[in-house]
Amino acid sequence: MDNEHSLRENLLALTLGSALVSLGVIFFSQVGLLTGGTAGLAIFLTKVTDFSFGQVFFALNLPFYLLSVMRMGWRFTINTFIAVSIVSLAVDHLHNVIEIARIDPLYAALIGGGLIGIGMLVIFRHKMSLGGFNILALFIQERFGIRAGKVQMALDCSIVVMSLFIVDVSLIALSIIGAVATNLILAMNHKPG
Predict the structure, then answer these.
(1) Averaged pLDDT, 12-28
(2) Are 177 and 109 in contact (CB under 8 A)?
(3) pLDDT score for 3
(4) Is 18 helix (H, G, I), strand (E, B) or coil?
(5) For the segment 68-84, what is each residue's pLDDT rounded down to a tens digit?
(6) Can you list the alpha helix ranges (DSSP code H) found in 62-168?
(7) d(Cα 144, Cα 160) in Å, to the nearest integer?
């Protein structure tokens, strides 16, 4: 069975996956939730610096591209760079096309986490990632056979726990729900091979 996707399919996956992740991050940001991975670390850093999500997310991913080239190849790395760039720009500029007046925090956690998970799944299945911890999770899956979703969940929960120092405990609990929603989608649907 041929698992190769056409250029058109890859471009659609890149666009749709990045758009879903961006919208999920907007849901989280709207109510002050955090998430895990590189995006979670970027949200965390926007709370303690004057930089935007897109600026921090883009910069955090730069060191991971070397691992990506060495372990995943140029195609994966270029696709990942483009996906990271799209998410960085989209999150910083979605306010120009969408305005959310009110969203229930639990709904934001569940649906935002689901959007991020589905977007990442689409991106992963087309041999790309959102950089950072995604590259590490996919590398560990490829090398050691540990599902990317499980690795990602461990990293995500670590970022959320670190956030205890800057946000209210109720938001941490909802952030954990969002991280679990994201990673359950990945753990159930993204398997080695």
Answers:
(1) 94
(2) yes
(3) 60
(4) helix
(5) 898 888 998 999 999 99
(6) 64-72, 74-93, 105-125, 132-144, 148-162
(7) 25
